[in-house]
Amino acid sequence: MTETGSLLTSLECRACCSEFEPSHPVGVCATCGHTLLATYDLQQWDSKGWLAKLSRRPATLWRYRELLPVQRSESIASLGEGFSPILRLKESADAPGIQLLLKDDGLLPTGSFKARGMAVAVSRARELGLHELFVPSAGNAGVALAAYGARAALQVRVYVPMATADSVQAACRAYGAKVHAVGETIREAGAYARESEKGRGSFDMSTLREPYRVEGKKTMGLEIFEQSPDGEMPDAIVYPTGGGTGLVGMYKAFTELRSAGLLARIPRLYAIQPDGCAPVVRALREGSATVTPWDQPATVAPGLMVPAPFASERILESVRESHGGGATVSDDALIDAMLTLASSEGVSASPEGAAPYAALSTLIHDGQIHPGETVLLYNTGSGLPFSPDRLRNAIHT
After folding, report:
1. What global pTM score does this model have?
2. Most buried by CB count within 10 Å: which residue of 32, 104, 226, 249?
3. Do residues 42 and 21 touch, judged by C-beta distance below 8 A?
4. Would the CATH topology of 86-110+211-395 be identical to that of 114-204?
């Protein structure tokens, strides 16, 4: 067993069933180019004993170290991330009879859920001897990679679409990252980044193009499990979906807990996307095995403007196998939800993080959630960097 107790055994490709040794840096599957997922020796895991110990561990995501890939404690680059609160919300007129909960990752370091994935991925990158990292980002991922790269003393380059807010670019630079503003969408920024980084010996930290960010996102599901009183998990989790790593991570957490005999029922997962960029919801409605790129994407929520998420098969699988679904919302509804959450609940939500609240009426109308159920909304980021008035003006100009 490793010093941290990590039970990591291999990296597995669900598309072609290839397996790879995790002892050196690996991106996507060398056989077919699909996403690799970490596997753990759950047969050797004393899951009941682990559960009993959790309450005595620090309230960070590293409390789940047996199910995380980092082998040595000295490799961990932490800013105290994880264990965000779950808040009980008032009953909404748009969702009568629904008990609403909200998990608030806007309170994490760097202001978003991206801290989870980058904390684990950067720690593992340092452990594997990497020195230069890069990522295409619409904002939060770049800021998180810059911060954790600084913490780990690694060089970072961030590629953002040209319309990315100056404040985001400035934050990345403040953490010591080099920033390149290129292209109109995250897809274009990603293509430029990968071409520019060829031959430099750097490592691509893009969503689902390396195996460890999803392990950090997995802690979202582990926390929901631990924070659910008496093991009574929510009936549904409603999640804003851009790159989709959070859905894959939560589903992976739940299946690992189920395999270990700790969880009997997996909550239904719902993907929420804006009307102007909804490739995942469209694929769910059409019964497609993968997404097709969204033409002319447009939304005021930068983290949701992902016209062609990588490894969409894994995203769709997570939703479908949990018996969940999806819905779209207008940009105006996103802003209304931001304002309502702030004024009625004291919750600062980004336009992305407000999407689940905005989608409640649609999910009720479509019969996807029902009176009497407990529904957890996932706020993925703080609303503090955003001005609702400016967002509204951006829609109508």
Report:
1. 0.95
2. 249
3. no
4. yes
**What is the distance between the alpha carbons of residues 353 and 174, in angstroms, rounded to a whole number?**
25
Q: CA-based diameter of the chain, in Å?
A: 59
Domain ranges of the chain: 8-75, 86-110+211-395, 114-204
Question: How many C-beta atoms surround the C-beta of residue 302 within 10 A?
Answer: 23
CATH, domain range 114-204: 3.40.50.1100
For 86-110+211-395, the fitting CATH number among 3.30.750.210, 3.90.1150.10, 3.40.50.1100, 3.30.70.2190 is 3.40.50.1100
Whole-number pLDDT of residue 396: 74
User: What are the residues whose beta carbons fall under 8 Å from the beta carbon of 73, sequence distance 6 or more?
Assistant: 3, 4
Are the beta carbons of 79 and 147 closer than 8 angstroms? yes
373's tokens: 């159920």
Please determine, for residue 1, whether its predicted confidence score (pLDDT) is greater than 60.
Answer: no
User: What's the pLDDT score for residue 326?
Assistant: 98
pLDDT digits (tens, 9 = 90+) for 145-203: 999 999 999 999 999 999 898 999 999 999 999 999 999 888 899 999 999 999 999 99
Q: CA–CA separation, 110 vs 145, rounded Å? A: 10
* Contact (Cβ atoms closer than 8 angstroms) between residue 253 and residue 155: no
